[in-house]
Amino acid sequence: MIDPRLPKFDWGMRVVALADLLNDGSYPERAADALLAGAGTVGEVVQVGRHTESDTPVYLVEFPDGSVIGCLEEEIARAP
């Protein structure tokens, strides 16, 4: 059994996108592979959850345009 990974980021924490975040189909009203948040865009963690199959943290991050995007730890970092 794999030990669950503890979250690095908490609710309310400001984070920055490390790479361009593209639509993976989660936003059907937007084109496939549309840019949702560009690298360097700062957002705020509004919820912390877990991916059930891999038991890893998933963060819902609200970006300035109002979009809320599910992010993995590898896609975000603490904002300066």
From TrEMBL:
UniProt entry keywords in alphabetical sequence: Nitrogen fixation
Pfam families: NifZ
InterPro entries, sorted: Nitrogenase_MoFe_mat_NifZ (IPR007415)
Superkingdom per UniProt: Bacteria
Family per similarity comment: Belongs to the NifZ family.
Protein name: Nitrogen fixation protein NifZ
Organism for this UniProt entry: Aromatoleum toluvorans
